[in-house]
Amino acid sequence: MSYSPLVQQLMEAFRCLPGVGPKSAQRMTFSLLQHDRQGARSLAAALQQAAEAVGECRLCRNLTEAEVCPLCQSERRDGQVLCIVENPSDVQALEEATDFRGRYFVLKGRLSPLDGVGPAELGLDVLEQRLADGEVTELILAISPTVEGEATAQYVGEMARQAGVGVSRIAHGVPLGGDLEYVDAGTLSHAFAGRTSVG
Amino acid sequence: MSYSPLVQQLMEAFRCLPGVGPKSAQRMTFSLLQHDRQGARSLAAALQQAAEAVGECRLCRNLTEAEVCPLCQSERRDGQVLCIVENPSDVQALEEATDFRGRYFVLKGRLSPLDGVGPAELGLDVLEQRLADGEVTELILAISPTVEGEATAQYVGEMARQAGVGVSRIAHGVPLGGDLEYVDAGTLSHAFAGRTSVG
Ligand SMILES: [Zn+2]
Ligand SMILES: [Zn+2]
After folding, report:
1. How far apart are CA B114 and CA B147, in angstroms?
2. How many domains does chain A have?
3. What residues of chain A lie within 8 A of the CB of B62, using their CB?
4. pLDDT, tens digit (0-9, with 9 covering 90-100), for A117-143
5. Zinc finger (C4-type) locations (chains A, B) (predicted)?
6. The whole model's pTM is what?
7. Rounded CA gap, B104 and B72, in Å?
8. Which CATH number characterizes residue A45's domain?
9. Which ipTM score applies to this complex?
10. Residues A37 and A89 in one domain
């Protein structure tokens, strides 16, 4: 072992990042320490600040350090249409691929009773309250067509129907069993435009 | 733009890492903020500590927070044989691939007069002093066979000859124009064992 303790510690700390193995961690460590100390300090500060301050939006559960996220605050978004997604990254994917001007609700997962993920873990009580408030008139389900995603979509669709809210589901082109965030923008745009009513 | 400022800032900060594009930066950000706050805090602390404290070893120029690195301190290493490498990562690659028991000297670059990299930038004054001290009796040049690497090897080889120190160069199997750190361990081990005298 030829590394000093702080170099070794940094190399191991990089392993918490997705897709980073021993070789990448080593390359990142040497790159920052040899050529970019300022980058290392900026990344440290950004990590520290985000880890302390970022929580979830009271209205949509997306990641934000504010009580209400920029998208839920924006008056330029249509509060009558709510798009239901699994992950924060899905919000970004849809924003880039479509001209959707409504708002979002982020489940942060899918129903999976065996893993202890029920309606409460997905914030469906919060969603139910929002539907009861009466502003939302249409739900768009942008949930991945996996087995657990299907069950989640059915559950949310049933909630919408009971609240008298129209509900549709994006379709066409999202591959069965695929994760939404890996679909290319063109396919996703097509699927969004071609959504079919399930209400 | 659907991200809150701190989320956006973290995403941009990840771009200082080699090989990390917008998609990877997004995946890293969501992964840490959704599933691994503790990992984010540990990485922040490791970056901060390393950026502040890690300097270079007074003897070999390798990265270390101590005045003298673990390898130069170790009494189990042979101080008579010095292996010259370009990068800290080359030290680790040779440690893993060979049974070399001497010590190292890290140039942190190659001679490149047009880029302002001369002998002083590579610490060759420090190396010259070490050769004059008399403990070192053999140099092994493990420098990549690129154009600038060749010039660097010739320069260091000449220094060794003037100091009356034997000098050899690793050979066989390191592809011409290739960077040492991307060579597989078997090839590197073979090249190290088959080094040829150039003194
Ligand atoms: Zn929100
Ligand atoms: Zn050293």
Report:
1. 13
2. 2
3. 2
4. 999 999 999 999 999 998 999 999 998
5. 57-72
6. 0.80
7. 8
8. 1.10.8.420
9. 0.81
10. no
